[in-house]
Structure formats: structure tokens, C-alpha cells
Amino acid sequence: MRVIEVFADVVCPFTHAGLRRLVARRSELHRDDVLLRVRAWPLELVNGRLLAADMAAEQVAALRGGVAPDLFSGFDPGRFPRSSLPALALAAEGYAAGPAVGEAISLALRTALFEEGRDIGDLAVLVDIAARHGVAFADPEGGREAVMADWTEGRDRGVIGSPHFFIDGTDVFCPTLDIRRVGGSFEISLDTAGYAEFIHRCFGDEGR
Prior knowledge:
Layout: E1 2-8, H1 13-29, E2 34-40, H2 43-46, H3 53-66, H4 85-97, H5 99-114, H6 123-132, H7 144-156, E3 164-167, E4 170-173, E5 177-182, E6 185-190, H8 192-203
């Protein structure tokens, strides 16, 4: 089994778009031997404040208008969580149950927020997602230690933002998107060369 590590926040729209694209390519290549280990990079601790709902909405609009018109269909800024730490704790609990469970929960949390318009800061929502993946989850504090450990390790390894990937001794920040701030607005396009190199790193010659 090959593991691709990524440090990211569950509320980061760029991460959701990147992971969905990567998982889709993995499915096309029938590479079930490659798993994602999504580590916690809590922006509210990194930056001293959570990503604001209106900023997330601006990023979502730019992604939909540029590279991901098929994603974020159910995103509701009014249900943006006031903290990502409980959701990150659930993801950590998932990985404690097994790598495939952890990956599934990490992706399900992002789907819930960005495609289903659910508040993943709501304990009832988290309990529901956990139950659907066979994980008992009642107290977000249970996974808090693992979240903090990820954050500390990420800083030690030079993580600069969400998402930051580590593959076979190399690392790259947000490898598939060209993100620019022009006139106060985001302009986002696919970094074609960066994406091709990234996929090759993930899947070898099959990814070409």
C-alpha cells in the first residue's frame, strides 16, 4: 500500500477541489493501492482565526468559475462551521480505526460541507458521518491530541499552507492550481504542467 500524505484544513475549498480531482484520477487508473493520509493543518490555529465564510464563498465562486464547475453545488456559507477542530478530530478518529476509514471520513466531511451544505461543526452532523463509516464519535476532544500532533509535525516539516502534499520524500504545496489575486478577486486556473508532474509523482508512469 502506498500512502500520500497531505496536510490540510477540512474547510479549505482548494483542498476539496484538489482531493476530488486526485481521487477521480486514482479511480480511472484503478489504483486502489494508493491511499490518502489527510493530516490536520488547522488554519484557525495557524493564522489565529478560522477561514471566514465570506472568504470561503469567494474562493468557491472562483473555483466554480475557473476549474471546478461541477463541484461545490450545495455549498451554503450560512452553514460554515465556526471551528474546524471538531471535524479534524473526527478525521483523526477515523484514521485511528484504519487508513481506509480515515480517508473515507476525510473525504465525506468535505463532501458534507461543500456539496451537501451541512455544518460540519455541528456534533450531530459529525456523529452521523462517523456512524456511516462505523466509527463511534461522541466527544471531539477525543481526537484533539492527534490534531495538535499533526499541526506540530506539519510545522516541523515545513508545511506552508493547505493543501501541502508529501510524496516519496518530496513535497509540494497546492500543486494543481494556479491561484492569483487580481484586482481584489481570485483568478484560478489549472496548472497543467504542475498537475501532470503531481499525478506522475502519485502514480508513477501510469499517471502520464
